[in-house]
Amino acid sequence: MKILFLVSQAVLGGHILSASTVARYIKKQGHEVSFAGGCGQLTPIIEQDMPFFDISIPFFHGRLPTYFTWKSFSSVSNLRKLIREQNFDLIHAFDARAYIHAHIAGLLENKPVLCTLCGGTDPQYDIPITDKIIVFSEEQRNKMVRGYRWSPSRVQVIRTRLDIDTIINDTGQPPVSLDLDPLVPSIMMISSFDATKSTSIRQVMKMLSRLADHQVPFQMVFIGGKGAFWEEMRQKGERLNAALHRKAVVFTGPVLHAYRLLRQATIVFGVGRSAFEGMAYAKPTLVVGERGFAGIVSPEHIEQISYYNFSGRNQQALCADETFAQVVKDLLLDENARNILGRFGYDFVVREIDVKHGIGKIEEVYRAVLAGNSSLFKIRQFCSLLTIMPPIWRDNIWHTVGMPLKRLVGKVK
Predict the structure, then answer these.
(1) What 3-state DSSP class applies to 246?
(2) pLDDT-based confidence at 315, cuts 50/70/90?
(3) Pairing of strands 249-251, 219-223
(4) Is residue 180 packed enough to be buried (19+ CB in 10 Å), middle (13-18) or exposed (0-12)?
(5) DSSP state of 319
(6) What is the reported pTM?
(7) CA atoms within a 13 Å half-sphere pointing along the CA-CB vector of 246
């Protein structure tokens, strides 16, 4: 089978890494695999394993994130040309935006398309129908079934997307030298510093101040960056370092192979993929997501945490800073508890997230999508496409005309 994996852009990020990992393992099954999307930091990494085609997919309409805009017509045209030249049997898109572009190109070129939805809030709009889609969590499956009225048989949960062997057998050097004190326990968190991460990072910073008040020794390493928010948090970290008269908070900025740094961690704060990477190293892992601290990866919390795809959305209200600090303090001071939790997390991630265990299921989805690519079903897909586009264009038009007009009227008043 000849398969094209498609993403919006090959930037550093959990779902791009997941897509490239799945693609590599599909290739190991004997399929001919290529990758496409806008070029980014991960392009040269992906090119080591498979051909990469630069297909730019627009992300914004002005400043508004959108799924389709005027520039999308050029992207669809380029994608159609690539499909014709390479004669792919199947296109596997790894986000809703890429999927809508691939869906149109696939319809016009008579090629089946499927989608893996990454993250619990994706998609922001309904997406065109296909025989099956893959989601990472029950939360997302219920969103598609209850929210967008998809047939339950068309939405399949397949969590597996992390190459555990590559992580634990990787003997490469860490991307940066942290120069940590080996006698002081270290906390590590891999995260971008965009607006969606501000709540989690701010709560961690407040928790660190509480730990300092309790005179608990720690070293905190924030892995990722940069941007205005990164600079704001870096300055807060420097102030805390000055108050403690030592290097207690470290910021690495963006790095490749960030997971290698987690070898040095005592405990890991994570969300989604970064949590899995901590668990792969058998590190006790706390989920700190878009609503702050959401629990420890433990037998007591794993069902709820995994339902929400390790995102932290199970936390309805922001946890008190003092409560968060007490949990971290107890873990830092209890090596036996850390060992038990680390082993539990490792067993879970190997059983549920290791990519090897899901490749057979993904191949079954491929076969179902290929078998369902009939002429009658394509008519249904075309009608489905017509129904999902108006809300996208409505929001684009409102962003272009309505919002500026509303601001102008407000100024006049």
Answers:
(1) coil
(2) confident
(3) parallel
(4) middle
(5) P
(6) 0.84
(7) 12
